[in-house]
Amino acid sequence: MICVSNLHSFPFKPQKIALHLFRQLPWIMIRQLASLILRIGGWKFKGHFPYEVKKCIIMMAPHTSNWDYIIGRLFFFKINVPVKFLIKREIFVFPIGALIKYWGGIPVERKKKKNNLVNFVARLFRENEELYVVVTPEGTRKLVKQWRKGFYHIALKAKVPLALSYIDYAKKEGGVMEVFHPTGDYEKDMEHIFSLYRDKTARHPEQFNLTQNQ
Questions:
Q1: Domain membership flag for residue 199
Q2: Number of folded domains in the chain?
Q3: What is the Cα–Cα distance from 27 to 29, expressed in whole angstroms?
Q4: Within 13 Å, how many C-alpha atoms sit on residue 31's CB side?
Q5: Which pLDDT score, from 0 to 100, does residue 22 have?
Q6: Which domain holds residue 32?
Q7: Residue 4 counted as domain residue
Q8: What's this model's pTM, rounded to 2 decimal places?
Q9: What is the pLDDT of residue 196?
Q10: pLDDT tens, 97-106?
């Protein structure tokens, strides 16, 4: 039994514990709500998230619909991963901008040169002990002839792996298939990455391309 007179010598301060729980309460509620929404929608998370990896680019594909962001964000709430998203700065307007930032949005300039964006994100990785950045390699919901290479260059420059993640609308599931360390041989690495996504069904399959046509 702990006497009141001994509280000052107790290694854990009750006030700090209470404050920590109060700050975590909204996230606990959000996690529960996200889990409920996914369960009602019939969605499930498959596999294991690599919590032991403290820094990585979470490569999310296919990306053919705005629903990809919503479902993906619910999954990350559910499994309690504090992800960050690169989102065009124009979206960050009051009041929705504050909410997007609170949920992990990082504003970026759409006209920023590729090298500048790569350096910017690589610097974020250097400055943080833990960082998970979600990137959609297609770069748009429309059909593209080839995936953008920014995610790959960021991983190489920041020396972080790629968590190959997916959303499959046919099976109504999402997950992380593999943690992949880029070798520097882009063409060979992409052959392996594409092979993992070939059986994944996008919300709009006709807009999902897995070739590197120029």
A1: yes
A2: 1
A3: 5
A4: 11
A5: 46
A6: 12-207
A7: no
A8: 0.81
A9: 96
A10: 888 888 788 8
